């Protein structure tokens, strides 16, 4: 068991390394002068620019810069924002928390929706199946930012009392916070729920044709008990792992959703920093996002391997 | 994001096999024709402003006008050109790169395989959209950069889709037999391996086209897509947000265009899958 | 041989047809047979002859995704099973008629402990509490020859060998002391050495619990010493039937002869089984 975890982590290391190199390189591959961007103005004497350059370590060879940057990361120094001149990490963490909340809510909604419709589709067959799958197919064609914009439009047209853009922080007003996150999370969840629904459906169909389900029926167990303990429990494991792998998609989508619903999360922070050319921030966000996705993927892999041990010997 | 649908079912019945494909082709051809002949079909100049702003649908403006009086329909038609151009070129590059990498990786195996797969895993580790944003932000939002970014981002999945059948075909008995008799590697590659790769690649290409529409329009929605003044669907959607209650068509128009384009490729993907009977991995 | 004048199971003109995706498969064409209480009867025939379909039709267990058409009568203790509501049939399955299937490697739920899979049938058909059901489970595991039963009850299927898993499945089948046990190719998927053990187990349980046994197999060698009467099936029909000794000594039908010939004789070079 621990061996599997270690193997997976070891596999992750070269990728992490590559990820860090890419994140670092991205911001060094800019047109224009990094030092200039750091200064924020073009109105500088060459000496002043030089001082800035030395301060940022830009006079050193590129690999030395990379190592310095890496070392900084290890001690929590993600650089300072070009805009606010405050440490990036401090600005990033609260926003990361907000995005985490949005993403988790969306993930939970997607799971509930997806599992429910997938189950209905697999067990009820016939018209329900057709309807669900057709709807899913159509839903896939509507990108999440289009859904979100349409939601805002509908709300504006028919429910103007519903203050859409009134995000409140969690600790100020927990209930209000959750309420304001509902629609955004829903918009984000919709596309992911389709994948979960299809996977659930396939998994349930696959499991229903297994011998042990036939045995369960021959035992005279009630249909509800068979559904819970034999069908769903076996079908759910692949579904949960697939959901975990949707995290990357959720994180990417959060940028758009946060922008549309004016939610101060990591995604919106990324967008703002692109507009204001705040490169240390962009770098940090890209790195953090990739690392989170990697970690979750490893977790999912490990969890699956654990369950798989039971199933693959069977 | 659009993914390959997991399959645990019998192949579709004969009739249905061709329906989706035909539908997809019809949709695709319609889109291509409309955008190709766009400048001649569009009733107005897409960037011409007019004082008639936020107008509703009328005989002069079928889909109304936007906040500075530009004709929505014309902008949709012209906007499609850039979007589709970027989409097709970028995905073609991704397919080409993926084919080469996947074939080399799968066929040669060993260290080359390891290295290539690791490198691709690194790209894979980033959330697609985040990576696209970061790269475009770094390089600057021009059309060539967008094409390059998207090609990079989607190459890994293409390579994987190519590599899988290559790996399995390599081990087939009659391929081994052919090799032992002295049949050249290249001939083996062409005769045995390539046919196995075609089907999954076709399906994946359609899926990736759908995903690319999403990425391109999302990037332009955020303002880092093709630069103005040329219209693009994502940008239109974003601009429309300001006054959308006054002129809903400014939102619905681009939304419908995006959905139509995405749906075209999804239908094509499913149609191809039904036709070629490709299970998912 | 019947212990009472009315057979426990009386099947008349049973016909069954499973259809999946428009493809008709597996047909039973109007067969009739009976089984007396406590009697052991064998059903022999090659794959595809309809013997397994017969069992599933009786239990009304159509494979997932298939539709089924049934005709005729299946009288169990006087009641026609084919006319029962599904809910009533559910009560009979596992409790009065139980079944053991062919492949022990895929017949157990991988995510539940074996104990849980016996607990659930026990509590389903009796009113026992969880603790009582678990005691019964451990008792059953011991009955089928699983050592260290109390501890093993918490183990998962993948921690058992094929032969042990089949024992667990037999424990499940006899847990509620059914009147009829249907064993569908119970040893086919097992190693030769284990086959004999399982057959002996079935024999012993049958004697101890007084169950009727319907033993389905393609191998006449398995039938020997296990049953009193035999039905031979070919192509969805019964082509011959009779007392087991009579069949062995004087097979009437060509097909029966062919099946018997397929079994290596005991007289030749020691005890080798195919």
Describe this structure in words.
The complex is a heterotrimer of chains A (314), B (281) and C (274). By secondary structure, chain A is mainly α. Chain A has 13 helices and no strands. Chain A has helices at residues 2-28, 34-39, 46-55, 62-74, 88-124, 126-140, 144-158, 174-208, 211-218, 223-245, 247-261, 266-275, 279-313. Chain A is globular, with a radius of gyration of 24 Å. With 281 residues, chain B is mainly α. Helix content of chain B is 72%, strand content 0%. The longest helix of chain B is centred in the N-terminal third of the chain and has 37 residues, at 72-108. With 274 residues, chain C is α/β, with parallel strands linked by helices. Chain C is built from 10 helices and 10 strands. Chain C has helices at 51-59, 86-92, 114-125, 130-143, 149-152, 162-174, 192-209, 220-223, 244-249, 254-261, and strands spanning 9-20, 23-35, 40-44, 67-76, 79-80, 97-100, 180-184, 212-217, 229-234, 237-243. In chain C, α3 (114-125) crosses α4, α4 (130-143) packs across α6 and α6 packs parallel to α7. Chain C starts with 8 loop residues before the first strand and ends in a 13-residue tail after the last helix. Classes of the chains: A mainly alpha (314), B mainly alpha (281), C alpha/beta (274). Chains in contact: A-B, A-C.
Mean pLDDT of chain C: 88
- Inertia-based shape of chain A: globular
Mean pLDDT of chain A: 83
Question: Biggest interface, which chains?
Answer: A-B, 54 and 52 residues
Q: End-to-end span of chain A in angstroms?
A: 18 Å
Q: Major sheet of chain A, described briefly? A: none
Largest sheet of chain C: 6 strands, mixed
Order of helices and strands of chain C: EEEHEEHEHHHHEHEHEEHH
Report the C-alpha radius of gyration of chain A, rounded: 24 Å
Distance between the termini of chain C: 31 Å
Question: How many individual helices of chain A?
Answer: 13
Strand content of chain C: 25-35%
Low-confidence stretches of chain C: 268-274
Find the structural class of chain C using helix and strand composition. alpha/beta
The secondary-structure element order of chain A is HHHHHHHHHHHHH
| Proportion in helices of chain C | 25-40%
Task: Evaluate the radius of gyration of chain C.
Answer: 19 Å
Poorly predicted runs of chain A are none
Strand order in the largest sheet of chain C: 6-7-8-3-9-10
């Amino acid at each position: 068991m621990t061996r599997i975890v270690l193997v997976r982590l070891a596999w992750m290391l070269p990728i992490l390394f590559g990820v860090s190199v890419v994140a670092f390189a991205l911001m060094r591959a800019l047109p224009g002068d990094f030092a200039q961007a750091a200064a924020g103005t073009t109105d500088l004497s060459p000496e002043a620019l030089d001082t800035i350059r030395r301060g940022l370590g830009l006079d050193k060879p590129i690999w030395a810069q990379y190592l310095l940057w890496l070392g900084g990361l290890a001690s929590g120094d993600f650089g300072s924002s070009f805009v606010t001149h405050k440490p990036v990490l401090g600005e990033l963490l609260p926003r990361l928390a907000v995005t985490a909340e949005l993403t988790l809510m969306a993930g939970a909604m997607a799971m509930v929706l997806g599992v429910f419709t997938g189950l209905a589709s697999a067990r009820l067959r016939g018209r329900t199946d057709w309807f669900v799958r057709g709807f899913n197919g159509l839903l896939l064609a509507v990108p999440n930012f289009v859904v979100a914009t349409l939601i805002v439009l509908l709300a504006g047209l028919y429910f103007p009392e519903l203050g859409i853009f009134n995000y409140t922080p969690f600790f100020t007003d927990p209930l209000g916070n959750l309420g304001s996150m509902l629609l955004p999370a829903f918009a984000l969840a919709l596309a992911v729920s389709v994948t979960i629904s299809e996977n659930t459906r396939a998994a349930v169909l696959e499991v229903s044709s297994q011998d042990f389900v036939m045995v369960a029926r021959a035992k005279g167990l009630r249909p509800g008990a068979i559904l819970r303990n034999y069908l769903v429990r076996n079908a759910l494991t692949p579904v949960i792992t697939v959901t975990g792998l949707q995290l990357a998609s959720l994180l990417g989508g959060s940028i758009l959703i946060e922008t549309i619903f004016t939610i101060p999360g990591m995604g919106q922070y990324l967008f703002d920093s692109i507009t204001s050319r705040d490169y240390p921030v962009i770098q940090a966000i890209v790195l953090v996002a990739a690392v989170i996705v990697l970690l979750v993927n490893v977790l999912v892999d490990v969890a699956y391997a654990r369950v798989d041990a039971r199933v693959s010997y069977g | 994001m659009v993914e390959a649908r997991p399959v645990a079912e019998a192949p579709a019945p004969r009739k249905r096999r061709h329906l989706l494909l035909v539908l997809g082709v019809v949709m695709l051809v319609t889109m291509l024709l409309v955008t190709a002949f766009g400048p001649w079909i569009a009733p107005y100049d897409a960037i011409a402003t007019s004082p008639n702003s936020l107008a509703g649908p009328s005989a002069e403006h079928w889909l109304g006008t936007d906040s500075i009086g530009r004709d929505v329909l014309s902008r949709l038609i012209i906007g499609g050109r850039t979007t589709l151009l970027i989409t097709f070129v970028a995905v073609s590059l991704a397919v080409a790169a993926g084919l080469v990498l996947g074939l080399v990786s799968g066929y040669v195996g060993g260290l080359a395989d390891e290295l290539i797969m690791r490198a691709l895993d690194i790209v894979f580790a980033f959330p697609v959209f985040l990576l696209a944003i970061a790269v475009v932000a770094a390089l600057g939002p021009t059309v060539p950069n967008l094409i390059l970014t998207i090609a990079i981002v989607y190459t890994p999945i293409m390579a994987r889709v190519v590599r899988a059948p290559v790996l399995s075909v390599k081990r087939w008995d009659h391929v081994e037999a052919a090799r032992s008799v002295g049949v050249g590697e290249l001939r083996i590659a062409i005769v045995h391996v390539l046919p196995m790769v075609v089907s999954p690649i076709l399906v994946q290409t359609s899926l990736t086209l759908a995903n690319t529409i999403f990425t391109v329009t999302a990037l332009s929605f955020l303002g880092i897509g093709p630069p103005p003044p040329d219209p693009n669907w994502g940008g239109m959607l974003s601009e429309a947000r300001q006054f959308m209650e006054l002129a809903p068509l400014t939102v619905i128009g681009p939304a419908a265009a995006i959905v139509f384009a995405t749906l075209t490729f999804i239908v094509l993907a499913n149609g191809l899958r039904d036709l070629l009977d490709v299970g998912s991995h | 041989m019947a212990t009472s004048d009315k057979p426990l199971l009386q099947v008349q003109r049973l016909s069954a047809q499973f259809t999946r995706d428009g493809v008709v498969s597996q047909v039973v064409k109007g067969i009739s047979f009976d089984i007396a209480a406590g009697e052991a009867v064998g059903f022999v025939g090659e794959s595809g002859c309809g013997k397994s379909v017969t069992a599933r039709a009786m239990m009304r267990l159509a494979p997932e995704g298939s539709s089924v058409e049934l005709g005729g009568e299946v009288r169990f203790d006087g009641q026609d099973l084919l006319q029962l509501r599904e809910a009533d049939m559910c009560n009979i399955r596992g409790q009065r008629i139980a079944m053991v299937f062919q492949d022990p490697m895929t017949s157990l739920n991988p995510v539940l402990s074996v104990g849980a899979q016996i607990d659930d049938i026990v509590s389903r058909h009796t009113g026992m509490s969880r603790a009582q059901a678990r005691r019964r489970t451990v008792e059953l595991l011991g009955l089928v020859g699983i050592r260290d039963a109390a501890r093993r009850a918490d183990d998962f299927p993948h921690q058992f060998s094929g032969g042990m898993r089949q024992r667990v499945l037999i424990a499940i089948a006899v847990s509620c002391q059914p009147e009829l046990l249907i064993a569908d190719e119970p040893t086919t998927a097992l190693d030769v050495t284990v086959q004999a053990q399982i057959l002996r187990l079935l024999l012993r349980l049958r004697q101890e619990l007084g169950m009727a046994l319907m033993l389905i197999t393609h191998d006449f060698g398995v039938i020997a010493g296990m049953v009193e009467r035999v039905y031979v099936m070919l192509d969805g029909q019964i082509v011959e039937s009779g007392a087991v000794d009579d069949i062995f000594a004087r097979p009437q039908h060509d097909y029966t002869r062919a099946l018997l010939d397929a079994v290596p004789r005991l007289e030749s070079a020691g005890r080798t089984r195919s």
